[in-house]
């Protein structure tokens, strides 16, 4: 098959859409913004978006639209959830279907919840087991 007619998107044209739950407290988003910043530094800011299910903006559809507008012909959606609960199994597929309907020439791929990745599980266990962790003051 001729590479110019291949249906496999060019890696440079693939966006990364990080999807988190959202919260009323803007401080909650800091770790997710840090993940997005690391990804943007590695891939280019135009190819990475952070979206939220509720309480915060942008939502998944708006962030997906922005990546398409930036020239992405494929978008990998990564749920920044510890497990595949109801939001991942029920809410995200509905939103993905909406994106696919709005952009039929763009390939949207839902990846597993980030908390299911062995590296994330190992990192959480390492932090939980590390001695001398400072206490967090609750306010």
Provide a descriptive summary of the structure in words:
With 139 residues, this protein is an alpha/beta fold. It has one domain: Rossmann fold. The chain has four helices and four strands; from the N terminus they run βαβαβαβα. It has helices spanning 30-43, 60-69, 86-102, 118-129; strands spanning 14-20, 48-52, 74-79, 107-110. A four-stranded parallel beta sheet has the order 2-1-3-4, sandwiched between helices. Helix 3 (86-102) links the parallel strand 3 (74-79) and strand 4 (107-110). Helix 2 runs parallel beside helix 3 (86-102). The longest helix has 17 residues, at 86-102.
List the helices and strands and how they pair.
Elements: E1 14-20, H1 30-43, E2 48-52, H2 60-69, E3 74-79, H3 86-102, E4 107-110, H4 118-129
Helix pairs in contact: 2-3
Main features:
single chain; 139 residues; alpha/beta; Rossmann fold; 4-stranded parallel beta sheet; disordered N terminus
What is this entry, summarized?
By secondary structure, this protein is an alpha/beta fold. It has helices at 30-43, 60-69, 86-102, 118-129, and strands spanning 14-20, 48-52, 74-79, 107-110.
**What's the assembly state of these chains?**
single chain
What is the N-to-C order of secondary-structure elements (H for helix, E for strand)? EHEHEHEH
> Helix share of residues?
25-40%
Q: Judging by the overall fold, what is the CATH architecture?
A: 3-Layer(aba) Sandwich
In spatial order, strands of the major sheet run 2-1-3-4
């Amino acid at each position: 098959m001729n590479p110019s007619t291949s249906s496999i998107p060019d890696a440079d044209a693939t966006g990364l859409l990080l999807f988190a739950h959202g919260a009323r407290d803007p401080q909650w988003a800091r770790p997710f913004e840090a993940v997005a910043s690391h990804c943007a530094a590695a891939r280019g800011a135009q190819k990475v978006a952070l979206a939220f299910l509720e309480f915060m903006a942008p939502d998944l559809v708006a962030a997906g639209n922005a990546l398409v507008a930036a020239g992405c012909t494929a978008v990998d959606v990564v749920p920044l959830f510890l497990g595949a609960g109801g939001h991942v199994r029920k809410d995200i597929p509905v939103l993905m279907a909406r994106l696919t309907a709005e952009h039929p020439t763009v390939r949207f791929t839902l990846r597993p919840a980030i908390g299911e990745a062995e590296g994330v599980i190992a990192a959480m266990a390492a932090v939980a087991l590390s001695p001398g962790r400072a206490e967090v003051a609750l306010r």
